[in-house]
UniProtKB/TrEMBL annotation:
It is a multi-pass membrane protein. Residues 34-307 form the ABC transmembrane type-1 domain. InterPro entries: ABC1_TM_dom, ABC1_TM_sf, ABC_transporter-like_ATP-bd, cNMP-bd_dom, cNMP-bd_dom_sf, P-loop_NTPase, RmlC-like_jellyroll, Type_1_exporter. It comes from Sulfitobacter aestuarii. It comes from the Bacteria. It is found in: Cell membrane. PROSITE patterns: ABC_TM1F, ABC_TRANSPORTER_2, CNMP_BINDING_3. Its main location: membrane. Residues 874-994 form the Cyclic nucleotide-binding domain. SUPFAM superfamilies: ABC transporter transmembrane region, cAMP-binding domain-like, P-loop containing nucleoside triphosphate hydrolases. This is Cyclic nucleotide-binding domain-containing protein.
Length: 999
């Protein structure tokens, strides 16, 4: 109610005034029927005096009836206005509530966001919030309306007869006491139901994300059993709600119907005894009937408010974590914020940062980074790197100390200023559904007012002139053409330097350019088509392509497309009406018998290949066959086999179904099964086919013209003006690389970037490789020209040479930026000015020893074990908490030179991590002679497979010199394998590696 009142005080006041106007009109609709019966219809004389006027009985009847009609119409119109106003108000408040919730999602700290399911959030914002809208509109006006109607009706009943009024109110206190108590239990059940639905939504989201894993490993039965258990619990809860809800309605209806019982009994006796008029009794019964409705509405409103309050608080508590970030959505506009510096100094003063478990990630850190410098900070642990970058981005708050930018505390920055001052690049990139250009230009889309028209944007990028704008959801920051041109130029340089241009263009070749705004681009690509054809011939790749030609049958096109030398304008199976027009055309051209013979042959082949159970196979789906096609083909072929020349009523329909195979399936799907004679006949008939075809048919196909762009073909198919032959598909990438090379040489940079900008990304970047997604992240950071750039393992999936080229370009693109590079290892070709290391919560100069460390020896020892275990490949994917527990239980063991750690035949009691020194693993023959010796390097885990198999040791392990090992107890090791699937999978890989070795 606080939320409703805060955001709708004025509207609620207007609704209250409109509602109060209803009550006089309502009273008239109750009083006038009594007057009509008693004063007009029941008048003792044909002429009478009424309200000081002499009139006939009929005149009075007409006047009272007209007054009743007017009051009913006025009451109905005013009530309609009230209800409409409530509906609009409800939608406004619901829109504000949802907007607030979505805004809070943006303010979730990362630690909290990682604990909340996306499916749960979506469910709360959409489905759970939907019922709140009704109560938001009804909050004040609805109870006032119903209570006012009830009071008006009760007043009328008391005016008619005191006992009528007392009978009407007699059971109201009972209902007012009983109903809330019955409703309280229903409210608790509703709360439980909402929580169960949330858990179910989370499970469904997780199931959808991991569906492929379940199919691969067979875990769907277990997961579906869990879903069944959730649904069963939800069913039980809802059943209990229904049972209690309908019992409540039964009690309420029973109590409500007791009053009419007394009205008929007592009122009838009073009328019989002459103590009450029949008109008064009828009016009283009518009034009480109207009284039950507002009373039920009040009770319903009470129960709805209780339920919605529960729902509201359940939603709010999920969207109000204690560490919620500040409301940056309410920031002042950019013009009101301080100017963003080109250079910025970064300072950490006594910063203490802890993780969720209370472990110190940074411990009393003092650090000063000069403006314009490049500092590389080494942190081997991914969590340490992530925590440090989140600290600088204010995603994590320090427990003590301050982070300063140019002397101003980071806590005093608005989020708008943080977004403009700092940029962060890492490998965990989120790509929005849209195009590459949409995602790269995200930093420039800051104001929800206007959107650049695509054509105007291209002109601005080419000329730098002012921009024309079209209505839309966003506009570039400041609306400056110069900013867009600079950003586009930066992006072009990055794409070229990182080697992404060829990769992106290769993906662009697989999409279609069909929009009218792309006409200029299409014309430039058509100009490059001849060069592509020439280069293909020079490279000896022309034979790999089935080029479109007026005298050639292309197997990758369907028969109608070959006949009309055009591409179908629609994807999928052609409609039946198009099939009829095609059948008439081939009949006119004299091809029907040949085509029908071919269609029958294809039908028999399909029936032979696919049985009734094969309609779900990948091959069946790839052919694009309708699921019911085979079931329809079988009786058609039986009817053809069962007659010679005899006609049947279904012959026309049967032939049309058979012809649909040839009309929709290209010859490339049937290796060598399309007759050469039919192909030659189709090519021969091509010249007159278009002229004789029905105009309705030809409009469904896009003509193939070597001098024009065909929007039904991909960019790649347009450039080669043909299709890749099925036998040449392995050479497809080679041909694409050649086309990309030609485009890169013939098209200017803006045209190339325009092609790349329109590449669809898919949901969460499904159409992009990890390398391309990382390049988008780097581009987003560079084009906004930040004062501070944080590179957290940026471009990690690229090779070292590509990373080095990209980082080298940053100094040219951002000459004055302060760059902080977080790495696990020191880059070989580093571009940094300084190198630091994040070690045990301290930042020290690379290679320096920690001085003045206050931790005790036990903590240092635990850290040493932790670092040793983390370097072992088997434990690479363990969480920090699992590694800490494993390090705590592990023990150091020392061995002198030539001593044995274990011998062949010993029972395995632990695994050993080689920390310092050299060992020999010796295989001996039955006579004791050495068969072979293995010398694993430091950091190798030895003896883990013996723990898994629980077999005696098969080798001797001997120290070559002084040896220091980290021993992991068998029980601790097996507990890790049992609880961490990734570690178990790595162990299986190691086991397979042993089995694959030659014996």
């Amino acid at each position: 109610m606080s939320f409703i009142w805060t955001h709708s005080k004025r509207d609620q006041f207007i609704l209250t005034c409109l509602t109060l106007l209803l009550f006089p009109l309502l009273y008239l609709t109750l009083e006038l029927p009594k007057r009509i019966i008693n004063d007009a219809i029941g008048a003792a004389a044909p002429n009478l005096r009424y309200l000081g006027l002499d009139m006939a009985q009929t005149t009075l009847l007409i006047a009272l009836c007209l007054a009743f009609l007017a009051s009913v119409i006025a009451h109905g119109l005013l009530k309609m206005r009230v209800n409409s106003y409530k509906g609009v108000l409800a939608e406004r408040l619901l829109r504000r509530f949802r907007y607030t919730l979505i805004g809070r999602i943006l303010r979730f700290p990362r630690s909290y966001q990682s604990r909340v399911s996306e499916g749960e959030l979506v469910s709360m914002v959409t489905a759970e919030a939907e019922p709140l809208g009704g109560i938001m509109g009804d909050a004040i006006a609805h109870p006032l309306l119903q209570a006012g109607q009830m009071a008006t009706i009760l007043l009328f009943l008391f005016v008619q007869n005191l006992w009528f009024g007392l009978a009407a109110v007699a059971l109201i206190p009972v209902q007012a006491w009983l109903i809330p108590r019955l409703q309280a239990r229903i409210n608790l059940l509703n709360r439980s139901r909402i929580r169960q639905v949330r858990v179910l939504a989370s499970d469904i989201g997780e199931l959808a994300a991991g569906a492929a894993i379940l199919r691969q490993h067979g875990g769907w039965r277990y997961r579906m059993a869990l879903i069944g258990q959730r649904l069963g619990g939800l069913f039980d809860t809802r059943f209990e709600i229904y049972r209690r809800k309908f019992f409540l309605k039964f009690i309420n209806n029973l109590l409500t119907q007791l009053t009419p019982f007394f009205y008929f009994l007592v009122g009838g006796l009073l009328v019989i005894n002459g103590q009450l008029t029949i008109g008064a009794l009828v009016a009283a019964l009518s009034a009480f009937k109207d009284l039950s409705s507002p009373w039920k509405e009040l009770l319903t409103y009470y129960t709805a408010v209780q339920e919605m309050a529960q729902r509201y608080h359940l939603i709010i508590e999920r969207f109000a974590p204690a560490e919620l970030l500040g409301d940056f959505l309410a920031d002042e506009p950019d013009a009101a914020a301080p100017d963003i510096p080109v250079q910025a100094a970064l300072t950490l003063e006594g910063v203490v940062l802890q993780d969720e478990g209370g472990r110190s990630l940074l411990n009393d850190v003092d650090l000063a980074i000069a403006p314009g410098s490049w500092t590389c900070i080494l942190a081997q642990d991914e969590e340490d790197r992530s925590a440090f970058s989140q600290l600088l981005l204010r995603e994590l708050a320090p427990s003590a100390g301050r982070v300063l930018i140019d002397g101003t505390a980071l806590t005093d920055f608005s989020q708008t200023r943080i977004a403009a001052t700092l940029a962060h690049v890492n490998s965990a990139v989120h790509v929005f559904d849209g195009t590459v250009g949409d995602n790269v230009m995200v930093p420039l889309c800051t104001a929800p007012q206007e959107q650049l028209d695509g054509v105007a944007l291209n002109e601005a990028l080419r000329s730098g002139n002012s921009l024309d704008r079209a209505d839309g959801p966003w506009r570039p920051a400041n609306g400056a053409a110069e900013l867009l041109v600079a950003a586009q130029g930066d992006w072009q340089r990055l794409v070229t330097i990182t080697g992404a241009q060829k990769n992106l263009l290769s993906r662009v070749l697989d999409r279609r350019l069909a929009g009218p705004e792309e006409r200029a681009l299409q014309e430039q690509l058509i100009d490059a088509r001849l060069a592509v054809r020439g280069r293909l011939r020079e490279a000896g790749l022309a034979d790999a392509i089935h080029a479109f030609g007026t005298d050639v049958y292309v197997d990758e096109l369907t028969l109608p497309e070959n006949l009309l030398f055009a591409i179908s304008r629609r994807d999928g199976w052609l409609p039946e009406e198009t099939g009829r027009l095609l059948a008439a055309l081939i009949d006119t051209l004299g091809l029907r018998d040949q085509v029908l013979t071919q269609a029958v042959a294809l039908a028999r082949m399909l029936i032979e290949v696919f049985d009734a159970e094969a309609t779900g196979s990948a091959l069946f789906r790839r052919l694009g066959l309708p699921k019911e096609l085979l079931a329809r083909l079988r009786p058609v072929l039986k009817r053809r086999d069962g007659r010679s020349v005899a006609r049947s009523r279904s012959r026309a329909a049967d032939e049309l179904l058979l012809l649909s195979l040839v009309f929709n399936l290209p010859a490339s799907h049937f290796d060598g099964d399309f007759s050469a004679a039919l192909k030659q006949a189709v090519v021969a008939a091509r010249r007159g086919a278009t002229a004789q075809a029905d105009p309705v048919l030809t409009t469904g196909f896009m003509p193939l013209d070597e001098t024009a762009w065909n929007p039904r073909l991909s960019v790649f198919e347009n450039m080669i003006f043909g299709k890749i032959a099925p036998t040449s598909r392995p050479r497809r990438e080679e041909i694409k690389a050649l086309v990309v090379e030609i485009l890169g040489a013939r098209l200017d940079d803006l045209t190339l970037s325009e092609l790349i900008r329109k590449l669809p990304t898919g949901l969460r970047g499904a159409n992009l490789s990890p390398q391309l997604m990382e390049q988008i992240s780097l581009s987003q950071a560079v084009i906004k020209r930040p004062a501070i750039l944080i590179l957290e393992r940026a471009l990690a999936s690229h090779d070292e040479a590509a990373r080095s080229r990209a980082f080298a370009s940053l100094r040219d693109l951002l000459p004055e930026a302060t760059i902080i590079q977080l790495e696990a290892e020191l880059p070989q070709s580093g571009h940094h000015d300084h190198a630091l290391e994040l070690r045990r919560g301290r930042i020290v100069t690379l290679g320096d020893e920690l001085g003045g460390v206050e931790e005790g020896e036990a903590r240092d020892d635990l850290h040493r074990k932790f670092q040793a275990l983390r370097k072992a490949p088997l434990f690479r994917d363990l969480s920090r908490q699992q590694l800490r527990m494993l390090a705590f239980s592990a023990r150091w063991v020392e061995f002198a030179a030539d001593s044995y750690v274990f011998r062949k035949g010993d029972l395995p009691d632990g695994a050993f991590l080689i920390y310092r020194g050299a060992v020999e693993l010796i295989e001996r023959t039955e006579t004791g002679e050495v068969a072979f010796i293995l010398r694993p390097p430091e950091g190798t885990l030895v003896g883990e497979l013996g723990l898994l198999r629980n077999d005696p040791r098969r080798l001797d392990m001997r120290a070559q010199g002084d040896l220091l090992l980290l021993r992991i107890d068998a029980g601790d090791f097996l507990s890790v394998v049992e609880t961490d699937a990734r570690t178990a999978f790595r162990l299986i890989q190691n086991l397979i590696g042993y089995l694959d070795r030659p014996q």
